[in-house]
Amino acid sequence: MIIGTKLSQLLKLPRLQLKPTKENCNGCNLCSHKCVMSLDVKEMVKRENMRNAECILCGECVDACPKKAIKYSFKS
Ligand code: SF4
Ligand code: SF4
Known about the structure:
Blueprint: H1 2-10, E1 15-20, H2 30-34, H3 41-46, H4 60-64, E2 70-75
Antiparallel strand pairs: 1-2
This protein binds iron/sulfur cluster (2 copies).
């Protein structure tokens, strides 16, 4: 995963990432409960920083959020 990230940076390929919208979050914590890697996703949204080496981009938090505060996006 880390090698893949470095390689995509080197080749300037678009990378999938999570994008938070802090203003939409109501603090329900469903995202953290659903996270398969047991990450504190609510806190990540609050800090507006979804980068975490343990995140496998499974999308469980995206699907779980009732306020659409987490989305997928591509970063080049
Ligand atoms: S599920 Fe959505 S609304 Fe609830 S804490 Fe997580 S980001 Fe906020
Ligand atoms: S994408 Fe999956 S692993 Fe990453 S924070 Fe969301 S639920 Fe957790």
